[in-house]
Design a protein that fits this description.
Layout lengths: L7 H9 L5 H19 L2 E3 L18 E5 L7 E2 L8 E2 L7 H8 L3 E6 L33 H8 L5 E6 L5 H7 L2 E4 L19 E6 L2 H8 L16 E3 L8 H14 L2 E2 L3 H22 L1 H5 L8 H9 L2 H9 L1 H12 L6 E5 L8 H4 L8 H7 L4 H6 L3 E8 L5 E8 L4 H15 L12
Parallel strand pairs: 2-5, 2-6, 9-10, 9-11
Antiparallel strand pairs: 1-5, 3-4, 6-8, 7-8, 7-12, 11-13, 12-13
Helix pairs in contact: 6-16, 8-10, 8-11
Length: 436
């Protein structure tokens, strides 16, 4: 039997040419799922109680996807990184997962995540450590850690995650993937366990921008119009904190795209502070009962505790000014239709997991904080943002750029990413060897 193509779009083409049937492709993905998971440790739950077979028709017919374990699935409540979930007969899947199923995609299982989506890494004492398929010592970002590992390791052609302060973009950057955080409110969050509803966005992890596009299209509320051509590009290279290898890769990209340099230090700092206020307050509200009953783990407490004692007026004020802040930011940095702002995904090369997992002897707090340094302010503004690799560091691990667009400009960001990947001759990270 013909081997499975490496990319989602490649599988679509193979099925369209008659080289594989959708049913055969789905069965091949089921056959290799457990073997891949045994190597990378990304599944929270397999098929039992959660599986939906891939369809024979639809744009995603025969495509196997898997999703972060904070979405309701068929007859199953999510485990949210705390346990492996629980059966609830008759429970409908989350809106986004149901839409993908209607498009023909199959559901391969629920994926591990940081507890309650609180964490910039995969650290979670309830599950085996996720292994980065690119390098066993490299960290897997969080909190959508299993989603990144499943895609980079070849278990699934794509995965949904959630992004509240970088939780799709950080794991994408550590695993050499395309990670798309969508505009806040674009994709309904019905059936999603929330972390901070004012910041939460559903996102997509995929091996290429073309693959991410195919997953996004069924989730859009209406048919997309034509992409805008020739976007106005600006680039922010922070004056402090960038590693030389990261700075060199971003500067080279900016030069090749003739992106206009801008300064963003003051805005980044102020908006990040507002994002933190909303994050702490809303996490405390979501977890209030568990917090007061001392049932929260050490991973969740640093986010929830400050919000418990914070004056509610702080969060109210931060949310009240958000619309004005968004308009001001777009006017200053994304004024033209199709504008894109380029900035670092991570300020440093991908660190080893021992350096960023709390409790390890080589833990370095500043290395952990660096993972989400340039993420949270985007969630506060609610803007779409896409991360993709643009080079490799001295260890061969990915260096990624973050591309930020105007609201609802996801397809424009994907077009830019497709252009960059085509220019580099890069369709995504090479899949590790697996049994088909």
């Amino acid at each position: 039997m013909k081997a499975l193509p490496a990319t989602l779009t490649g599988l679509q083409q193979a099925i369209g040419r008659g080289e594989l049937t959708a049913r055969d492709a789905w069965q091949m993905q089921l056959d290799r799922r457990d073997a891949i998971d045994a190597r990378w440790h990304c599944l929270s739950s397999g098929a039992l109680g959660t599986q939906a077979d891939a369809g024979d028709t639809g744009p995603l017919a025969g495509v196997g996807l898997a999703h972060k374990d904070n979405f309701d699935t068929w007859g199953r409540r999510p485990g949210c990184g705390v346990d492996s979930g629980s059966a609830q007969p008759g429970l409908a899947p989350a809106w986004a997962i149901e839409r993908l199923s209607q498009a023909g995609a199959g559901h391969l299982g629920a994926l591990v995540m940081a507890q309650y989506a609180c964490g910039a890494t995969s650290a979670n004492p309830n599950f085996a450590r996720c292994v980065n398929p690119l390098h066993p010592d490299a960290v897997v970002g969080g909190s959508s850690s299993g989603s990144a590992v499943a895609v980079a390791g070849g278990l699934a052609y794509g995965a949904l995650g959630t992004d509240t302060a970088g939780s799709v973009r950080i794991p994408a950057a550590t695993c050499g993937l395309v990670g798309l955080k969508t505009t806040h409110g674009l994709i309904p969050t019905t059936g999603l366990f929330p972390l901070a509803p004012s910041l939460d966005s559903i996102g997509i992890l995929a091996r290429s921008a073309a693959d991410a596009r195919q997953i996004l299209l069924p989730l859009l509320p209406q048919a997309p119009g034509p992409d805008r051509a020739a976007p106005k590009l600006r680039v922010w290279l922070p004056r402090e904190g960038l590693h030389p290898e990261v700075e060199a890769a971003l500067a080279q990209l900016a030069q090749s795209l003739q992106a206009q340099p801008i300064e963003l230090e003051r805005e980044h700092l102020y908006l990040s502070q507002l994002a933190d206020i909303v994050l702490h307050r809303e996490v405390a509200q979501q977890q209030r009962s568990a917090l007061l009953e001392e049932r929260l783990s050490a991973a969740v407490l640093p986010l929830a505790l400050p919000g418990l004692v914070m004056p509610p007026a702080w969060c109210d004020a931060a949310l009240a000014t958000r619309g004005a802040q968004l308009r001001r930011f777009c006017h200053s940095f994304l004024a033209e239709p199709g504008s894109v702002l380029l900035l670092p995904a991570l300020p440093k090369p991908v660190p080893d997991w021992q350096a960023v997992h709390v409790g390890q002897s080589s833990f370095v707090p500043r290395e952990l904080l660096a993972l989400h340094r340039y993420m949270g302010f985007i969630n506060y503004l609610g803007l779409p943002s896409l991360v993709l690799p643009i080079g490799r560091d001295s260890r061969g691990l990915p260096i990624s750029v973050q591309c930020v667009g105007r609201p609802f400009q996801e397809l424009g960001l994907l077009s830019l990413a497709e252009h960059l990947q085509h220019k580099r001759g890069d369709a995504g990270p090479g899949l590790p060897a697996t049994e088909n």
